[in-house]
């Protein structure tokens, strides 16, 4: 019984982390290549490949009923660290740069 509960908790956690990795990948695709340069970050291709690898690692870390189940928790950890670095460091810098590129906004 305990093993079943642990398996479901791990499955829910793995799915949540996979969702975060997909969100990071989609955000990496959203911005123009010159925004990465203007923000002082690595290239768009670099971050798209890295977040794509994070997404793949997240998928591989899903437990058996959903994914392949053969990967270790290390894959889950590596994937979420990559996605976390993008979401915590790169994405805010890109948003700041793109916010400046759009010019001042009127507030009514």
How many distinct domains? Answer: 1
Percentage of residues in strands:
under 5%
Largest sheet: none
Task: Indicate the low-confidence ranges by residue numbers.
Answer: none
Number of strands: 0
- Alpha plus pi helix count: 4
Q: In terms of structural class, how would the helical and strand content be classed?
A: mainly alpha
For the residues shown, what is the average pLDDT? Answer: 87
Helicity level, as a percent range?
Answer: over 70%
Through-space gap between termini = 58 Å
- Please provide the ordered H/E string of secondary-structure elements: HHHH
Q: What best-fitting shape do the alpha-carbon axes yield?
A: elongated
Radius of gyration: 17 Å
Concise synopsis of the structure shown:
The chain is mostly helical. It is built from 4 helices and no strands. The model has no long low-confidence stretch (mean pLDDT 87).
Protein architecture, described:
The protein is 75% helix and 0% strand. The protein has one domain. The chain is mainly alpha-helical and 108 residues long. The model has no long low-confidence stretch (mean pLDDT 87). The longest helix has 29 residues, at 2-30. α1 runs antiparallel to α3, α1 packs parallel to α4 and α3 runs antiparallel to α4. It has helices at residues 2-30, 33-38, 44-60, 73-101.
């Amino acid at each position: 019984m305990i093993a079943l509960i642990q398996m479901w908790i791990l499955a829910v956690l793995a799915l949540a982390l996979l969702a975060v990795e997909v969100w990071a990948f989609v955000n990496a695709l959203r911005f123009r290549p010159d925004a990465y340069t203007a923000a002082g970050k690595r290239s768009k291709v670099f971050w798209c490949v890295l977040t794509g690898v994070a997404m793949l690692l997240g998928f591989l870390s899903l437990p058996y009923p959903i994914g392949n189940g053969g990967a270790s928790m290390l894959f889950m950890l590596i994937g979420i660290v990559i996605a976390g670095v993008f979401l915590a460091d790169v994405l805010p810098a890109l948003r700041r740069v793109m916010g400046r590129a759009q010019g001042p906004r009127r507030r009514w």
